[in-house]
Design brief:
The chain is an all-alpha fold. The protein contains seven helices and no strands. Helix 1 crosses helix 3 and helix 2 crosses helix 3.
Length: 124
């Protein structure tokens, strides 16, 4: 199981990385984490810096349901409602009536009871 670090610890480590107070490897060894994780936290902090001052009430409404936007991920909405992502992409379609009739006929042929010498000898 992976160790969970609080946002305060993450912020402290990222600040130390940004100020170049210590090398990454000893810092990672002290906290028992991989150096690449520290680099990822630093990148996330830099990428999300503008979001720190954004007003949460100004977020666009209905962003999760906007199917016209190709940049939206299906992962978040699927996780919110508790269904698999694959289920959201394609909906099952019924076969055309002619095709369905052919499938039913094949089922009838192969599922019909068969009689053989072996079955007769057992009394079936």
């Amino acid at each position: 199981m992976s160790k969970q670090h609080s946002p305060t610890v993450k912020a402290q480590l990222v600040l130390e990385l940004r100020q170049d107070l210590r090398p990454v490897t000893p810092m990672a060894a002290e906290y028992g984490i991989a150096p690449r994780l520290l680099h990822r936290w630093r990148k996330e902090a830099v990428d999300h810096r503008p979001d720190l001052f954004a007003d949460p009430a100004a977020a666009p409404r209905g962003a999760l349901g906007d199917r016209a936007d190709p940049t939206l991920s299906v992962r978040a909405p699927a996780g919110l409602v508790g269904v698999s992502r694959a289920r959201l992409y394609d909906r099952p379609r019924l076969a055309p009536p002619a095709t369905a009739a052919g499938y039913h006929r094949i089922d009838e042929i192969y599922m019909a009871p068969r009689f053989s010498a072996r079955a007769d000898s057992r009394g079936c």
